[in-house]
Amino acid sequence: MSKGFLVSLEGPEGAGKTSVLEALLLILEEKGVEVLTTREPGGVLIGEKIRQVILDPSHTQMDPKTELLLYIASRRQHLVEKVLPALEAGKLVIMDRFIDSSVAYQGFGRGLDIDAIDWLNHFATDGLKPDLTLYFDIEVEEGLARIAANSDREVNRLDLEGLDLHKKVRQGYLSLLEKEGNRIVKIDASLPLEQVVEITKAVLFDRMGLAK
Ligand code: TYD
Q1: Separation of alpha carbons 4 and 87, rounded Å
Q2: Using an 8 Å Cβ cutoff, are 91 and 36 in contact?
Q3: Angle at which helices 114-125 and 64-78 pack, to 10 degrees?
Q4: What is d(CA 25, CA 27) in angstroms, rounded to the nearest whole number?
Q5: CB atoms within 10 A of CB 164
Q6: For 109-139, what is each residue's pLDDT tens digit?
Q7: Which residues have CB under 6 Å of ligand 1?
Q8: Residues 6+ away with beta carbon under 8 Å from 33
Q9: What Å distances lie between residue 168 and 88, 107, 113, 172, 184, CA to CA?
Q10: Which of 105, 119, 138, 162 is the most buried (most CB within 10 A)?
Q11: 41 CA distance to ligand 1 centroid (A)?
């Protein structure tokens, strides 16, 4: 049994997870909460190498099942090397993407079998699920427009996919939300950043039993 608290951040492209996370970290630091932040795919050396293979814009011939299995492989390595030790040390761990991304992107987006993905996720994580998942919801067109306006951001293979895939991904998240409304909390990411940060902080502190 882990003693820490595991949070995952999820959402379609351009929802602003990374900006919210940066602001949240300052708040948590001020509170003296020990936190580890990390991202998927990646987070550890082997994971980052797998990330390069998955997201390389020139890898247009990648088969959807290969893509799924690479995400799953990266997930396992990252979990064992980085996430579990931090949870065992009692830390708050915030992950930028986790199991739900595979369901939303490879399941709903690419049309792969959801039961197979659930099984693979379970296999990779030994059944570990986040204590809390913050789902940043935004209309697909608005999210993609934000990305287009942000020239600093690296463009990856999934960003280059059509509108249709991204719409299916959002539907996937909304359907996960319906199924697991206890674990997953939806946050309206179309609001101004300061408001999104305030709401995120309130939800996190409430779930962790921290005073505001
Ligand atoms: P990243 O640059 O980290 O994107 P973002 O800032 O949107 O999180 O790239 C990660 C990409 O990988 C993103 O497009 C979502 C996708 N992804 C999957 O398709 N399946 C997965 O299981 C994970 C973890 C990510």
Answers
A1: 4
A2: yes
A3: 20
A4: 5
A5: 10
A6: 999 999 999 999 999 999 999 999 999 999 9
A7: 13, 18, 39-41, 55, 71, 96-97, 101-102, 105-106, 156, 158
A8: 92, 210
A9: 36, 9, 14, 6, 18
A10: 105
A11: 7
pLDDT greater at residue 68 or residue 210: 68
Helix, strand or coil, per DSSP, at residue 134: strand
What is residue 212's predicted lDDT score, i.e. its pLDDT? 75
Distance in Å, CA 66 to ligand 1 centroid: 15
Tokens of 133: 């998942």
- Confidence at residue 150, expressed as pLDDT on a 0 to 100 scale: 82
Span from the CA of 97 to the centroid of ligand 1 (angstroms): 7
- Is-contact 109 67, C-beta < 8 A? no
**Could you tell me the pLDDT band of residue 42, with boundaries at 50, 70 and 90?**
confident
Instruction: For residues 60 and 157, give the distance between their C-alpha atoms in angstroms, rounded to a whole number.
Output: 8
- Measured between alpha carbons, how far is 100 from 133 in angstroms, rounded to an integer? 9
